[in-house]
Write a structure and sequence with these properties.
By secondary structure, the chain is α/β, with parallel strands linked by helices. 35% of the residues lie in helices and 8% in strands. The structure holds thiamine diphosphate and magnesium ion.
Length: 438
């Protein structure tokens, strides 16, 4: 990939603006007092009788030079002369390997625990997609934000949420990262800036756009010069047919927000093939349409993912705006643990199983003498023990008290309904009986 892939026309937008609404359009520009140098889109489009006959600025300003790439080439890493033309150092490789092994081992354990009745509700596993979470999130600082979907356990782990807290959350216990109130699809950690876990598809994208807006606002309006925090928004291919995706790409590009939109294109949205569901299956092409770089990368190769991620994260941190990255990946299990996974063609599954991202990294590290078998085995053993310990911790932890049910519920608790005895139905011990266990 050439370094021009992520080039942009200018740094932070400094166009003067006085308002966000169009109500001043009929006013002469000289009567509008600029109050902030932040954002400024309406200024560009506002009618100005003095310049009415000059060429429209928005056409002149369009970022037509944006390039999209379809692959990443090997490039030299100057800092590792001892290992030659490699993309990673030994330490980086071991960190990536450990994170991917953690994701895989954790999810395999979840399957076991789910079938043993330790978890309730839907549980969506991430097996096969580890290169995406690891390739991106391991580049982040603690203050950077991650927004995920219902397939969120591994994003939480990569972001540093301890495995025992994620497992405990899945068991619905008080020691979970959401005190047992969120469950599988609603991981959250203020400390690690994991903003969620969102179960409605596309719901996380505006939230992520909001956290990116916060970073920019802190830096430019509140003058917190060191606030260079970046947001990563992860979501699936099916979600890209949802309106919120387009609305947020527009806003992020317009305001040059520090965000990377990471599409985990695993080719399926439950049982709907991506090819059948979208007018143009090449999702990355939608980036340039909004004036941001669009990148396609092999999402089964953690080193390639990491290369494009590095460039996009740096671009966001510099204040050069958003990037859309489509990672072509595959989930090795059904949509959720309730899905018998009978729709996908066995040859398709076999094709991607042969491209397992963990096996690929292992091979790369051994062939390039970055690590030996024994060293990698030791990591696997360490992670096995960590995940076992997480299960023991979760199992031994207490269930939340019933009184916790309405804590942090902002809607009127009467929404839970009042029974014939005048008490909230949720206070009835039988309230949760019959909840679907799928
Ligand atoms: C707003 C909304 N509509 C429908 C659903 C039901 N639903 C759950 S997962 C899913 C498919 C999402 O597919 P994709 O975005 O490709 O993510 P993947 O599961 O493949 O990671 C749908 C439609 C939902 N959760 N939210
Ligand atoms: Mg999908």
């Amino acid at each position: 990939m050439s370094s021009s892939t992520f080039s942009s026309s200018s740094s932070i937008n400094t166009i003067k603006s006085s308002c966000f609404t169009t109500e001043n359009r009929s006013l002469h520009p000289s009567s509008i007092i600029p109050t902030s140098s932040f954002l400024g889109s309406t200024h560009k489009l506002r009618f100005n009788p003095l310049t009415a006959n000059s060429p429209p600025r928005f056409i002149k300003n369009r970022q037509i030079h944006i390039v999209a790439v379809s692959d990443v080439k090997q490039k030299q890493l100057k800092s590792t002369p001892s290992v030659g033309n490699l993309l990673i150092t030994k330490e980086e490789g071991l960190e990536l390997y450990e994170d991917m092994i953690l994701g895989r081992t954790f999810e395999d354990m979840c399957a076991q625990m789910y079938y043993r009745g330790k978890m309730f509700g839907f549980v969506h596993l991430y097996n096969g997609q580890e290169a995406v979470s690891t390739g991106f999130i391991k580049l982040l600082k603690q203050q950077d934000c991650v927004v995920s979907t219902y397939r969120d356990h591994v994003h939480a782990l990569s972001k540093g949420v301890p495995a025992r807290e994620v497992m405990s959350e899945l068991f619905g216990k008080t020691t979970g990262c959401v005190r047992g109130q969120g469950g599988s699809m609603h991981m959250f950690s203020k400390e690690h800036n994991l903003i969620g876990g969102f179960a409605f598809i596309g719901e996380g994208i505006p939230i992520a756009t909001g956290t990116a807006f916060t970073s920019k606002y802190n830096r430019e309006v509140l003058k917190q010069a060191d606030c260079d925090h970046v947001t990563l928004a992860f979501f699936g291919d099916g979600t890209c047919n949802n309106g919120q995706f387009f609305e947020c790409l527009n806003m992020a590009a317009l305001w040059k927000l520090p965000i990377v939109f990471v599409v985990e294109n695993n080719l399926w949205a439950i049982g709907m093939s991506h090819e059948r569901a979208t007018s143009d299956p090449e999702i990355w092409k939608k980036g340039p349409a909004f004036g941001m770089p669009g990148v396609h990368v092999d999402g089964m190769d953690v080193l390639k993912v990491r290369e494009v991620a590095k460039e996009a994260v740096q671009r966001a941190r510099r204040g050069d705006g958003p990037t859309l990255i489509e990672c072509e990946t595959y989930r090795f299990r059904g949509h959720s643990l309730a899905d018998p996974d009978e729709l996908r063609d066995p040859s398709e599954k076999a094709h991607y199983a042969a491209r397992d991202p963990i096996t690929a990294l292992k091979k790369y590290m051994i062939e390039n003498k970055l690590a030996g078998e024994a060293e990698l085995k030791a990591i696997e053993k360490k992670i096995d023990e960590l995940v076992e310990e997480a299960v023991e911790f979760a199992d031994a932890s207490p269930h939340p008290d019933r009184s916790q049910l309405l804590q942090n519920v902002f809607a009127d608790p009467k929404g839970f309904g009042i029974g014939p005895d005048g008490r909230y139905r949720c206070e009835d011990p039988k309230f949760t009986q019959g909840t679907a266990h799928v």
